[in-house]
Amino acid sequence: MPEGHSVHRIARQFDRNYVGRRVMASSPQGRFVEGASLIDGRAAASVRAVGKQMFLEFEGDLWLRVHLGMYGAWDFAGEILVDPTIGSANGRMGQTNQRGTDLEGDPVFDAAGENSLTSIGAPRRTRVHVRMSEQTTGLADEDDQWPPPVVGQVRLRLMTDITCADLRGPTACQIQDPDEVAATIAKLGPDPLVDDVAEGEERFVAAVRKKATPIGLLLMDQAVVSGIGNVYRAEMLYRANLDPHTPGRDVPEELVRGLWRDWVRLLSIGVETGQMMTMDDLDPDAYRRAMAHRDDRHWVYHRAGLPCRVCGTEIVLEEMGARKLYWCPVCQR
C-alpha cells in the first residue's frame, strides 16, 4: 500500500502540473463516469494530501477525493514539471523516473519500483509515454502518441493540454463538497506535513496513551496518526526498540513522543527521496545501495528469517491487523 510520503509527492505533482489549469476528465473504465462529468472542463484550484488520502479541488467547490488503498496508483504522461521543493539542499531531486534516483552522478536503479516520476503508488510496470520538460531529465521522441493510449483499467483520466494522469485501482475515488471533505479529514489522525507538529504530537500521545490496543496496531490506525503503513510501522517500532504487542497505554510517554518525532523525520525523508529510507548514518556507498535496493534500506521489513542487523537474532514474521509484521524479539523487548 502506498504510504504517506507517496501521497504527499503525488499532491505536489498535481500542484505543479494541474492547479490553475483547466482539466478534461473521463472514466475510460466506465466506473466513474458521473463523477468525471462533474469536474470535466473545470480548472483545478488547489490540492492537499492528508495521510494516505489526496483531495484535489476544482472550481465550483467540488473536490476529488482519492484513497489509493492497496493497489491504486497514478500514472503520469506528457510534460511533467518536477516540484523544485522535492530535493535536498545540494540540488538532488527526490522525484525521479523509472530509471532510479540521481545521486550526484550516475542514476541508481531501483528494481522495486517504489520511486517513480511516471507511476506513483502501488509498484507496477506500465506502458506510459513521457515527454519530459526542461525541468526534468530529458525529452522523449517526437513521435510519441498524444494523448497517450489508455492501457488497462483506468478509473479516471485527468488531462490538461500537455499532461495526463491516469488513476488505476483506487480504494476510493469520489466527488465531495467542502463539508464532506472537512468531515473526512476530521476522522484522520495528525499528519506532520499538514498539522502543527507540536499540536499533532499532543494529539498522537493522547490517542495512544488512552488505549489498550497494541502499539503495532495503533500505528496503522489512520484515526490515531495519518500516513503510516506496513513498512514504516515495522521500521519505527524497531528504531524505538519497542515490542509491537505493548498496549498503547503501557508505552512510556517519552517513547510515544519519540515515535511521533521519528515519524516527522522519516516522512520528510520519504517525501524528499521518494524512498522509505529508515536507516541512518550510512556512508555514501551504503546509501547508494539502500536507495537502489529496498532490502538495503530497512532494519527489519521484509527480512523474515534473516539475522537482525544489530543482535543477529532471526527476524520474526507474524500477522498483525491482517498485515505482515516484521520485528526482532531481542532488540524489541
Automatic annotation (TrEMBL):
Keyword Manganese carried by entry: no
Keywords for this protein: DNA damage, DNA repair, DNA-binding, Glycosidase, Hydrolase, Lyase, Metal-binding, Multifunctional enzyme, Zinc, Zinc-finger
Cofactor names: Zn(2+)
CDD domains registered for this protein in UniProt: AcNei1_N
One Pfam family here: zf-FPG_IleRS
Span of domain Formamidopyrimidine-DNA glycosylase catalytic: 2-100
Residue ranges of every copy of the FPG-type domain listed in the record: 299-333
UniProt-listed GO biological process terms: base-excision repair
MF (Gene Ontology): class I DNA-(apurinic or apyrimidinic site) endonuclease activity; damaged DNA binding; oxidized pyrimidine nucleobase lesion DNA N-glycosylase activity; zinc ion binding
Family recorded in the similarity comment: Belongs to the FPG family.
Name of protein: DNA-(apurinic or apyrimidinic site) lyase
